[in-house]
Amino acid sequence: MSDIPENHRRAGPAGKAGASLKDPNAQIASMLKALYNAVEQEPIPDMFLDLLEKLDQAERLGKSRT
Asked: Is 46 inside a domain boundary?
């Protein structure tokens, strides 16, 4: 059973070719995909990479002590 009301269900999957650009759901999906793609292309901040490296080091130290 779906939580989507009957009048909001689609016949096919979202983003399928031929989806109307006048359809608000298709517009939202398109904008979210564009935003996701833009964020995905951004470089990873050095501060985050440093944190990941520290976590890896701590994990290696923890394993070597056991």
From this structure: yes
Count of domains observed in the chain: 1
The verdict on pTM exceeding 0.70 is no
Range of the domain at 31: 19-65
Q: Residue 8 falls within a domain, yes or no?
A: no
Phi, psi of 7 (to 5 degrees): -75, -5
Give 17-47 pLDDT, tens digit per residue.
555 668 999 999 999 999 999 999 999 999 9
Token duo for residue 10: 């689609």
Q: Is the torsion defined by CA of 38, 41, 43, 48 positive or negative? A: positive
